[in-house]
UniProtKB/TrEMBL annotation:
InterPro entries: FAD/NAD-bd_sf, FAD/NAD-binding_dom, FMO-like
Key words, A-Z: FAD, Flavoprotein, Oxidoreductase
Annotated source species: Favolaschia claudopus
Top-level division of the source organism's lineage: Eukaryota
Molecular function per GO: oxidoreductase activity
The protein's name in its UniProt record: FAD/NAD-P-binding domain-containing protein
Keyword Flavoprotein set for record: yes
Domain FAD/NAD(P)-binding residues, every copy: 4-235
């Protein structure tokens, strides 16, 4: 009898994981609280102007081609939220018909002890339409709830804090922007009918804040954004050629935890190589500012480091209705560097520089928190080892001391010194590594989710099937691996607090997703560097998700050889 697997979440990671498991003979059920598939790209979460950092061909799965965007000729193939919504819906309709339970909230997850139990996972759920509850049982579980569904709102910016001081204005998190857009526009219209203009204050400088500001400003709304730093970005007057943006070129210019090739070792461990790496990144950022026509004294230059940080967007070809252009034209007001510290009576927003703003509406683009903590009972979370654990400040010699590209780092974030993820490779809790009944997809931060999610889905299916894999032999060995990963992240991104949202940052590879994907393929004894191995051209070979189309057959052939 096939094992029953529940996949929690019907976003991109959940959809491709379910597809791969079904192809391998598992009995699969997806559960989502959403009304449509897609997760963060579900229809109910979208809003006008939402753009991705990806272009056509970068965010899809090998079983299904994606329709070319209608405006591809002028945008370089830039994907919109609606492009992703349509693709996710088409993928679900074609491959997962009758496998997804929509409008269903997970209340509690519990695993019963005893390895003889064929269905140890119990999932208590509630139907959001009928309010009825039931308990479902499964043999295995894949957690794909993602890290962009639970709003993170600091207490001092909460509605409760605002109510105490009689702030008297609506406060909306960016996660609700699409669902409450009509409400926002009604507030603006009501203010206009009284002969004045509504003032919207957006808190935060990330991509969500930028997209929201751009949409509101394009609608003629007075909008002010407040941030200490904003995201770095790449841009150019012409689209980057595929042999740059869709190859390994950017990935080898970024340090990876393991130096897999002679070229990477040269670039990151020698004086000349480090000069080349930093020169390239500095040139990319300088060229992007120039392409966007950002003045030298503009607050748009208060960005995170593209080398050290993960707060980097790909803007592509400059657009007149884009965030940077609208700031340049004065249609979006920027208050930076500054931080909102709280609210006061009658719509007053207090800043840390002693100044204040007046607002008719606040939009908090303050990020997200983990989606895991609310659904597991404490004993189960402890038993499988889902929680982070403390990391010793003095953990021995620096394994990456010879990385010249990581010299002169920014100051270490205090929280970065304390915690280690307990999730092996961002996929399996180390404490549960020998059980082969629980895995995670979507918790590794990368710039190419489509390729990585599909690779991880095959890794998980092989893991569940008991295939021969390169895995730690003991729990202790798996925990040592997670400690090494934590030390690497401390070295690679010292000024980041990656513990804030483990559901999307159990591990971070960001630019180096090709190297990490290769390591996962090798875990399954499958060929890596599948785009080509020519000694001279391999850094520029285009990487396509179509390389993964035969993984099911390849894994099946390996299984036959090992039986």
């Amino acid at each position: 009898m096939p094992s029953s697997v529940v996949v929690l979440g019907a976003g991109a990671a959940g959809l491709i994981t379910a597809h791969t498991l079904l192809a391998d003979g598992f009995d699969v059920c997806l559960i989502t609280r959403d009304h449509t598939p897609g997760g963060q790209w579900a229809k109910e979460r979208l809003y006008p102007g939402l753009k991705l950092n990806n272009v056509h061909g970068e965010f899809r799965f090998s079983p299904l081609e994606m329709t070319v965007p209608l405006d591809s000729a002028t945008t370089g193939g830039r994907l919109s939220g609606h492009d992703m919504e349509n693709y996710m819906q088409e993928f679900a309709d074609k491959f997962l018909k009758d496998k997804i339970i929509f409008d269903t909230e997970v209340l509690r997850i519990h695993r019963e002890e005893g390895e003889e139990n064929p269905n140890p996972w119990t999932v208590s759920v509630r139907d959001l339409n009928t309010n009825s509850s039931q308990t479902l049982r499964f043999s295995k579980m894949v957690l794909c709830t993602g890290g962009t569904s639970k709003a993170k709102i600091p207490e001092y910016l909460s509605s409760a804090a605002a109510e105490k001081v009689r702030f008297g204005r609506p406060i909306i998190h960016s996660a609700q922007f699409g669902a409450r857009l009509n409400e926002i526009m009604n507030i603006v219209a009501s203010k206009s009918s009284n002969g004045s203009s509504a003032s919207v204050v957006v808190v935060g400088g990330g991509k969500s804040a930028q997209d929201i500001c751009a949409h509101l400003a394009s609608e003629g709304i007075q909008v002010t954004v407040v941030y200490e730093k904003t995201d770095a970005f790449t841009a150019g007057e012409h689209p980057l050629p595929d042999f740059v943006r869709k190859s390994r070129m950017l990935s080898i210019l970024s340090p990876h935890i393991n130096q897999r090739t002679r070229l990477e070792r040269f670039l990151h461990t020698t004086w000349l190589g480090a000069k080349i790496v930093h020169g390239n990144w500095n040139g990319i950022i300088a060229g992007s500012f120039k392409a966007m026509k950002v003045p030298e004294d503009s607050p748009l230059r208060l960005t995170y480091s593209a080398i050290w940080n993960i707060h980097t967007n790909d803007e592509g070809i400059p657009r007149d209705d884009g965030f940077h252009a609208l700031v340049n034209s004065g249609k979006i007001k920027v208050v930076a560097p500054a931080r909102v510290t709280g609210f006061a009576e009658d719509g007053v927003v207090a800043l840390n520089n002693g100044n204040s703003l007046e607002a008719d509406l606040i939009i908090l683009a303050t990020g997200y928190r983990s989606s895991w903590g609310d659904i597991f009972d404490e004993r189960t979370a402890h038993d499988i080892g889902l929680h982070r654990r403390s990391l010793a400040e003095n953990s021995g010699p620096d394994e990456w001391a010879n990385y010249r590209t990581l010299s002169n780092p920014p100051p270490l974030h205090p929280e970065n010194m304390k915690w280690s993820s307990s999730v092996y490779k961002g996929i399996v809790p180390a404490k549960n590594i020998l059980r082969r009944d629980f895995a995670i997809n979507g918790a590794v931060l990368a710039t190419n989710d489509g390729y990585l999610f599909e690779t991880i889905s095959h890794w998980i299916s092989s893991y569940f099937l008991g295939d021969r894999m390169k895995l730690p032999k003991t729990v202790e060995a798996a925990l040592q691996h997670t400690e090494r990963d934590a030390l690497w992240l401390r070295k690679r991104h010292p000024d980041l607090d990656l513990s804030l949202n483990e559901a999307c940052t159990s591990f971070s590879v960001f630019w180096t997703w090709p190297q990490f994907s290769d390591e996962l393929l090798e875990d399954m004894y499958l060929p890596s560097m599948r785009s080509g191995r020519n000694w001279f051209t391999w850094p520029f070979q285009i990487i396509s998700v179509d390389e993964l189309a035969t993984l099911h057959e390849e894994r099946k052939a390996n299984r036959r050889k090992n039986t």
